[in-house]
Structure formats: structure tokens, C-alpha cells
Amino acid sequence: MAEAEEIVINIMKVLILGAKGNLGGQLVKVFGSEATSWDREDLDITNREEVAAKISGLKPEVIINAIAYNAVDKCEADEAEKVLAQKLNGEAVGYLAEAALAINAVFIHYSTDYVFSGEDKGGYDEDAKPGPISNYGASKLLGEGILHTKSVQGLKYYLIRTSKLFGPKGESEFSKPSFFDIMLNLAKEKEELKAVDVEFSCFTYTVDLARRTKELLEKEYPFGVYHLVNSGPATWYGAAAQLFKIAGIRVKLIAVGSEEFPRPAQRPKFSVLLNTKTPPLRDLSEALAEYLNL
């Protein structure tokens, strides 16, 4: 039966948006050459008319949106950036949802743990009440709200919340290095590093996230909200300690408070996403080991 399901998904017409990004690149690998891969030069998702025209012309059966504004501090400190975050993470999601609804396509969109306040040390399941504490979190929640509204009109969608992505770098010049990329580079230059030992949440390997995204379609999981993160929550310090241990890198790592690295935007202190709907993704340590061997 598994082989039959694989054949079904392979012949589906899939559109991947943000295909040159860190997550988008992995989605392209997972879905294969059958998928249509678009990046910013192919579609401006903030242009409602362009979105409607190009997507209705292509008529995909599945639309996967891996485009997001994620400059957390910029949109906290700059009003123009705040507006841009709302456009990309909120309004544009609505345009894509409208286009999907018009052609009866399945829409897949990614959100974040930053839609939560971080006050619940027990973590957040898929039905937990959001309460963002930053402009970035509010912009992502705006997109979520639009999807819920469109679902009443018949939209078929998967809203996937995830957190702290890492993995192979995307082709786009706008693809940012992950926390682990930064720490590995710093370890080449310094014998002593500091890492914040708060903001307890889950890291997510883009390879695993892309694979599980495809499984949601293959196995026909019910539409709705999903939390997809690697198992084994950690702080920035805890994750860096795992990274250096697995890599065999000897560097003095010092745990510090968030005041050591002041930033404009508040971060949730405890934002562990609880996955109650699918089998857990592998442990962070296993994902890190694979990431280091690429």
C-alpha cells in the first residue's frame, strides 16, 4: 500500500514557493523534479492579482508556501519592516489561500512557536491559545487567522508550526545561516563562546521537516494544524553544547542570560511545540549528527 501512495503523490501537481530558500530547497529535493519550483523572481506573493493569475494558470493540486519574513528584530525596531512582515506573513498568505481555494488545491503553510507567549513551561499543543509578544509573532498569527477564516469557506490546508530551523543552506542569496552554522564558524575563530541559556524550545532539521510535510499528503492526514519539530527541546546553550560534542570540537562554551545579547524583540522563554498528531521526529542529536556529515 505504501508503494501505491508514493505513486499517487508523485503524479500530483505540486507548486513549491520559496524554492531557493533553506526549507524550500529541501522541499524541492523531497518532492522531486515533478514539482514546479518558484522563487521571488517567479512570483510576487504580495501582488494579489499576480498570485491569482499565475496560480490559476498553473492549476497545481498542492501549493506549499515556504516564503516567510523572519527578520525578528528588524520588524520590531522599524515600522516599514513591520509593515513588510505583515504583508509577507499575513496578507500574502490570504492571497495564496484565495488562489488555492479558487482551484480547489491543498494549501500548506508554515508558522512558528513565536505565536505563543512562552509563559507555559509545559509546552504548547496544536490547540493551545496563541499570544505573541513580538511584531514578528503577531505577523505570523495574522497569517494563521486568515487560513482559519478561509477554511470556513472550504479551503483544504495544513498549517505547520515549527521552530529554530537548521540544515543545508538554500540557493538564494537571502538564505540566512542557521544558529549552528554561526556557532561552527565562530568556533574556528575563538576559543571561548557565549550562548544564551534561556528560550527553551525545539530545533528543527529542514530535511526532516520537508519529509514529514510530504508524509502529511501521502498518508492523507486530516487537514488542520500540526506541530513538527525534532525531539529533545533545548536552549541555545544546550543545543550548542550538543553540536560541539557531536562534532568533537573543543571550545569553552559559557552559558549566559538573554541580557548578554540585548535585542529589540522579545522572545518566548518557553515555547516547546508539542506534537500530538504525528509520530515524533527523530531526536535533535541524531539530526545534528547527519547535518555535520553532509
Structure description:
It is built from 10 helices and 12 strands. It is of the alpha/beta class. The protein has a single domain, classed as Rossmann fold, CATH 3.40.50.720. The strands form 4 sheets. Strands 2-1-3-4-5-9 form a 6-stranded parallel beta sheet, sandwiched between helices. It has a two-stranded parallel ribbon with strand order 6-8. It has a two-stranded parallel ribbon with strand order 7-11. The protein is globular and about 55 Å long.
How would you write the strand order of the largest sheet? Answer: 2-1-3-4-5-9
Question: How would you describe the shape?
Answer: globular
Find the CATH superfamily.
NAD(P)-binding Rossmann-like Domain
Tally of individual domains: 1
How would a textbook summarize the main sheet? Answer: 6 strands, parallel
Query: What kind of assembly state do the chains in view correspond to?
Result: single chain
Q: How helical, in percent, are the residues?
A: 40-55%
Give the number of helices.
10
Number of strands: 12
**Low-pLDDT stretches:** 1-9
| Average pLDDT score | 95
Terminus-to-terminus distance:
32 Å
| Elements, N to C (H/E) | HEHEHEHHEHEEHEEHEEHEEH
How would you classify the helix and strand content by structural class? alpha/beta
Tell me what portion of residues adopts beta-strand conformation. Answer: 15-25%
CATH-level-2 architecture: 3-Layer(aba) Sandwich
* CATH fold field value: Rossmann fold
Q: Tell me, what is the CATH class?
A: Alpha Beta
Rg is 19 Å
